[in-house]
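Posting for a labmate who doesn't have an account.
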Amino acid sequence: MLRRLLVVVSIVVPGLYAQAAADLSLEQKEEFLRKAKIISVHGAKKGVTGTSRATLSDGVITHDASIQKIDEEKARFETDKGTEMGFRDTYKFNIAGYRLARMLGLADRVPPSIERTYEGTKAAWTWWIDDVAMDETERLKRKAEDPDHQRWARQYQIMKVFDQLIFNTDRNQTNILYDKNWKLWMIDHTRAFRVRHDLMNAKGLESCDVVLLEKMKALKESTLREQLGNFIRPAEIKGLLARRDLIVEHFEKAGLEKQFEFLPKN
């Protein structure tokens, strides 16, 4: 009887751990990332920024995190899209991206990310997204479609607005994820937050969620410095605000027909 009970426990507990992790608040997830101990580490399957996947445990909950240590800066950088001056590729932008997402009502679409030392170097520790069904590469390969096409389209438009706001030069198919419920997740923002005051592609701004638009309007330099100042520079904050102004102007000129309701209003 005891042996049978032990077998049952070994099967059930992992599921309980997973559910317990899913029930954590954002603040609790951040605290877990800061304090949980590493159980094991292995490389992530995709990406070029030296990401490691670590299994963490605080003795009660076990969950994975991605760890990125990259922190590079070049005066000139050649890419397949051309030459970029003042290039930065840094883990700090993952943390800034998450913090900004919280300010914009997008915290359930950009996973929690905090700064913590790993192997003697500061890094971004980011919550590993549960129940990922596929990334955008796999979706296109499978020709899979969300049964609710409007839901998919609106999530995609929210991502496009967010990427224009942070000037994300590296949104690619491997860092667009879908969970089993077709929620779109945005990960890996290490090449965002440029100092540029223009938009990457204003024509790509087709429509915008009304809550996102209002929260962008409410952004203030003082608040951004307080929330993001340890991870992005003053010139990067000014660039973000300049792009915000262009995005707001774009959608105000476009009119209400280019706005939609999708994000919760609280």
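Reply:
Got it, the structure tokens are right above this. Confidence is low (pLDDT under 50) at residues 1-16.
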